[in-house]
User: Fold alpha-glucosidase from Podospora australis.
Amino acid sequence: MAVLLTLLLFFFSTVVFGQTSDCPGYEATNVLDGDSYLIADLSLIGKCNTRLHVLISDADNHVFQVQEQVLPRPKSHNSTSGNTELKFNLTRNPFSFSVTRASTGDVLFDTSGAALIFESQYLRLRTSLPQNPNIYGLGEHSDDFRLPTNGYTRTLWNAESPMIPTHFNLYGAHPVYFDHRTSGFTHGVFLLSSSGMDIRLDQTDAGQNYLEYNTIGGVFDFYFLAGPEPVAVSKQYAEVVGLPAFVPYWTLGFHQCKYGWPDIDHVNQVIANYSAVDVPLETMWGDIDYMQDHRDFSLDPSRYPLDKVRAMVSSLHNNQQHYMHILDPGIRNLDSYATYKRGAEKGAFLRADDGSFYRGRQWPGEVVWPDWFAPGTQDWWTSEIRNFYDSSSGVDVDGLWVDMNEASNMCDTNCVKSSSSSDSYIQTWTSREDIVAPKKRHDSADPFLGLPNRDLFNPVYRIANHHGDISAFTLFTNVSNADSTKQYDTHNMYGTMMAAATRNALLSRNPNKRPFVLTRSTFSGAGRVAAHWFGDNASTWDHYRTAIRQMLSFTALHGMPFVGSDVCGFNGIAQEKMCARWAWLGAFQPFYRNHADISAPDQEFYRWQSVADAARRAIDVRYRLLDYMYTSQWRASVDGTPVASPLWFKYPRDQNTFGIQTQWFLGDALLVSPVVDDDSDSVNFYMPDDVFYDFWTLEKNKYSGMMHRADNVPLDTIPLHIRGGTILPMRVKSAKTTAEVRNQNFTLIVAPGRDGTAKGELFLDDGISLDSEGRCSEIMFTWDGKALEANGTFGFDTSVVVESVLVLGGDNGTREEKGPWGLMGAFGFHL
Ligand SMILES: *[C@@H]1O[C@H](CO)[C@@H](O)[C@H](O)[C@H]1NC(C)=O
Ligand SMILES: *[C@@H]1O[C@H](CO)[C@@H](O)[C@H](O)[C@H]1NC(C)=O
Ligand SMILES: *[C@@H]1O[C@H](CO)[C@@H](O)[C@H](O)[C@H]1NC(C)=O
Ligand SMILES: *[C@@H]1O[C@H](CO)[C@@H](O)[C@H](O)[C@H]1NC(C)=O
Ligand SMILES: *[C@@H]1O[C@H](CO)[C@@H](O)[C@H](O)[C@H]1NC(C)=O
Ligand SMILES: *[C@@H]1O[C@H](CO)[C@@H](O)[C@H](O)[C@H]1NC(C)=O
Ligand SMILES: *[C@@H]1O[C@H](CO)[C@@H](O)[C@H](O)[C@H]1NC(C)=O
Ligand SMILES: CC(=O)N[C@H]1CO[C@H](CO)[C@@H](O)[C@@H]1O
Assistant:
């Protein structure tokens, strides 16, 4: 159907630490009407504008738009002035627009190559790209970090994705890409849409590169992010989708999980066996094994009896360790199951067209599904969590893990094929008398509910979902949410909404504590509420390498700083040497958890001597760097600076770095270059044109932008460099738990850059308070070649000191200055 379109255009100003720099500007408000199908309301707003918002929507506002409650957007404010870094140029007939960078004249986005299509169930918009474009993002995927640009399709449709297949849609949808130009300038383009879509990167017959959106609904709601530094784009994206949640300090410790632990005694043995080999275990996890018949908020009475589970959790807590539980969205629909009964009373579940609760299949068997839009759902979910995880009578978990929330339905669209059990419940798929059908919920006066008369089950345009039909193995897309929107439009947000509801519940349980939620399924902005692991990969070298580029996508491009892979791989048999290398790889990724499938052999680090040795040493180094990592998590939560970034983020003009996906910067200072080839002891790695110091020997070297090779890399180390120009705070010693690490003193490593100067920062607080305002320290370190200064705010009460400062790279090598210096006020020294 033809749709009358409105074009809204906004410019945004960037506010950095409360300052805005004014730019001179112009005013433009145009209304285009008449012969074409298009109406355009143009309003330019902002001061020094680094962000441009272009919304192409139907004039009647029927077409679905992402609910503000799910993804709150920054408020746009009109202003009559604004010289913008991003220039918008509209061509009326045929309609197209372009966005150019004012300072260089570079065309960043240009839709003139193909006509815009805006139909009720198919939208297309194409932008041209430069030759050999460097495009990154559009996660979640397991493909090359720099995306292929010929005959390549990225499908965004959250799906159960065992083995994280390449070239397919996985668990998350992040319709944002970074376009990095050889000039060294980067910009970002975010399409705020939860619709299923194929994004094609290809060339025309004439050889023109393009990127083309093909969506099955929604509007074209674009945010253009000017950069121009890559890091600036990450920050500008965070301004749009929200700053990531700050994690508790303990979550940076080492975690162990496995699906298939038979009983609580076994779990206790794992804890004891880690202790016996002196590999610090911070957090134990419970996968669905703990549940009775795989039901949320239940314990198997014989395998995981409450008293024993409580005793284990107490013992963990007494040793300053932690415990996590998994939850799935599928709720077994039996009246004898109180969680279900209470949810039903609150109307917390999605409904079929006859008003009964819509059913599917998950681990517990036939289930119903929380409707996160229903008014009673949050209350119900919160009270289930508060009751079951009550610290005095239940399982006193330290955080929650939400899985299967794409949502993953073990039923295809026929609900037969995948049904492994004999109770073929498709036959019981009838309306239930006891449930009152809800009132007619669609009020056509409400905006953004979606156009009427769509085929929500079999849209004409079929995205390349790896499960086939969009309703296969998930919730039927024609199911209505309580706010009258449809799963067809909101599917990609289901998992993030579950994570948000879980975070809210944890906040209600412990209002002053920073909650920790790990989610499998994500959507743009999920970082505000949850951390993420990369799902069910395999115990292969290939997935060891994949973990690096997936980390880079999430931390640098998708605003999710707390992520990691299942260390040693989830499916299949972990080989000893690979697991030892992965113990190191994981230690330099933000979230560090060993986890395996029920069908996989046990792969705890202590299962092999060599792996235990590797892990012990890797954890030792990680824990000494824990405050450096914590500080970068804090920094990300404050302004969106990536925790881990690709090399081109720091060397944006060095074209050699654009395709690197097996090395990364962790924070500002550390360059990690692990062994990546199967079973190898050597690694070829790139060193940008700069000063670097070997982390282990502290030896200084000037590099010139070339490949280097390390041979005979033993299993007890990882190639690691400190970038010149940085100051690295490290604990003097590691410890068995992160709580003990916090009592250790610091040493500062000053690594002067080419110009002889260096800087760094350190954030200190109690590690757990939701709000540590006034009780935290934000310390800036500067080195000018002769003097060190530590300055900032010093609100955190601590007796920990800086014992010494190592200044690297002097004429006589490393120079050590002995303190101690207290951390409750500014300090410094001159050489
Ligand atoms: C900006 O101005 C336009 C045109 O006058 C108006 O339609 C729009 O509502 C304004 N937007 C805001 C956020 O004030
Ligand atoms: C605007 O776009 C038209 C058509 O692509 C082009 O001819 C014109 O030069 C552009 N104007 C500016 C200021 O970029
Ligand atoms: C723990 O270690 C003991 C002694 O080596 C071993 O017999 C047992 O199987 C181990 N259990 C687990 C769960 O690792
Ligand atoms: C969705 O479509 C399926 C297949 O046509 C149909 O069986 C089902 O009743 C529909 N559900 C709703 C909620 O409309
Ligand atoms: C930290 O340094 C202070 C002052 O030198 C010292 O008293 C204290 O014992 C040190 N703490 C640890 C855990 O070594
Ligand atoms: C450090 O802080 C003090 C007090 O706020 C201030 O006077 C001084 O100029 C600061 N030094 C630097 C290098 O910022
Ligand atoms: C380096 O060592 C030599 C010999 O001990 C000494 O004379 C010189 O002053 C030192 N230089 C620096 C910069 O400390
Ligand atoms: C990236 C990768 O290794 N993907 C593999 C995951 O596992 C499946 C099934 O074993 C393979 O087909 C993929 O190639």
